[in-house]
Amino acid sequence: MLSESFLNSKIMKICIGIQNINEIKALVQAGADEFFCGFTPKEWRDKFIPEVGLNRRESSFSCSKTRTNINIGTYAELKDVIKEIHKYSKKLYINFNAHYYTASALPLLHKILNNCVKYKVDGMTIADLALLIKLKEWKIKTKIILSGEFGIRNSQDLTFINNNFEISRVIFPRHITTKDMTALISAFPQYEYEAFAMNTRCPFDGANCFAFHAGKKVRIRLCANLLNSIKELSFKKNKSSAFIKKAFDNLEKYIDRETNRNPSVFKSANRYLKPPHCGLCELPTLKKARVDVIKICGREGQLLEEKILAVRLAKEIITNNHSTKKIQAIYSACYANNRREICKSKYLCYY
Q1: 310 contacts: CB under 8 Å, gap ≥ 6
Q2: What whole-number distance in Å separates Cα of residue 189 and Cα of residue 191?
Q3: Is 344 exposed, middle or buried (0-12, 13-18, 19+ CB in 10 A)?
Q4: Which percentage of the chain shows pLDDT scores above 70?
Q5: How far is the C-alpha of 201 from the C-alpha of 125, rounded, in Å?
């Protein structure tokens, strides 16, 4: 087993996404160490949304589930959020992880980034190689984190980054194996590493996905629309290769597990929480690999009680030497009335 004083008692940090200042205190109390958010001020919304987003949550709409904005929308609110987080000696990173920014958007982007530094944000998460070049050109001094949307997957990727840019942390993409993570960390120990742990496991490869998540007047999510319509496709005619058919079959399975999640017995404010995408079983492996931070997505409409539970679960796993069987039992007890088939089916597994 793992033991060795649970791998030298190194405590992994928990980084969770937030939508507003009201979530911070409760999440700190639950065990969160770091926070990330999106920021889209009015001057950017008026000019570029939805065609060019500052981050991968392009929507200027509020979330119908939480009734709050997906992104922080004003400088005043951003300053308050930073102040509140720093009050607890925690850190805030802002996602500027769009895949590209047009030339006409660069002057305003430059201004926004400078303001974020002025307000003492703790770092920025970047997915665009061209933006990394611009940050050097603009001499913006802040902690740089490579987004999972950047798509670091092998030593050649990191060799290129290491030779050309000063970064502090790498967020592994969603669809990478723990074996590959371990190899990269061993080869490049100078960086911090972050890995996804809970919520929002998109079936698509974020680094190579250029779909919008929003529209001008209505929500347009190409990926979600594809998932919802895939059942209508028929393979009775020989339209495609066996490989393509298998890909669509996998999408069908994704729809099934998204639309048929078991209701939870965990009840709060007359709502039942659904079991989230989960990588808890792999946290001991990630800890052994020396992953520094685990990421819990939280900008996609999760309720505050869902986030609190996710943080508490993650904290329980990373501070105790639980077996896989024990971890699955804890997860199932929280979300599925001890119905272990959720874990056995692996439908919601990150890894």
Answers
A1: 16, 198, 199, 276, 296, 298, 302
A2: 6
A3: exposed
A4: 73
A5: 19
Identify the CATH number of the domain defined by range 4-345: 3.20.20.70
- The β-bridge partners of 296 are 16, 198
Cross-strand pairs, 13: 293
Contacts of 47 (CB under 8 A, 6+ apart): 105, 108
Task: Report which secondary-structure segment, H or E, holds 146.
Answer: strand 144-146
Which sequence spans correspond to the domains of the chain? 4-345
- CA-to-CA distance for 55 and 27, rounded, in angstroms? 23
Angle at 51 between CA 45 and CA 55, to 5 degrees: 70
52, 98 Cβ separation under 8 angstroms: yes
Please spell the DSSP secondary structure of 270-320, one letter per residue: TEEPPPPPB-GGGHHHHHHTT--EEEE--SSS--HHHHHHHHHHHHHHHHS
Calculate the CA 330 to chain-centre distance.
23
- The pLDDT tens digits for 237-250 are 445 556 556 655 65
Q: In Å, how far from its chain's centre is CA 188? A: 22
Residue with tokens 């991968």: 56
Structure confidence by residue, pLDDT tens digits, 141-165: 999 999 999 999 899 999 999 999 9
Q: How many other C-beta atoms are found inside a 10 Å radius of the C-beta of residue 130?
A: 13
Contact 39, 333 (CB under 8 A): no
- Which residues, in sequence order, are CB contacts of 190 under 8 Å at separation 6+? 162
Q: CA-to-CA distance for 171 and 194, rounded, in angstroms?
A: 5
Residue 206 pLDDT level (bands cut at 50, 70, 90): confident
- Would you say the pTM of this structure is higher than 0.70? yes
Spatial separation of the C-alpha atoms in residues 32 and 317, rounded to whole Å: 13
Instruction: Compute the distance between CA of residue 208 and CA of residue 314 in angstroms, rounded to an integer.
Output: 29
Dist. CA 133–CA 54, nearest whole Å: 17
Q: Quick one: pLDDT at residue 236? A: 43
Q: What mean pLDDT, rounded, does the chain reach?
A: 81
- Residue 346: predicted pLDDT: 73
Q: Is 172 left (phi over 0), alpha (psi -120 to 50) or beta?
A: beta
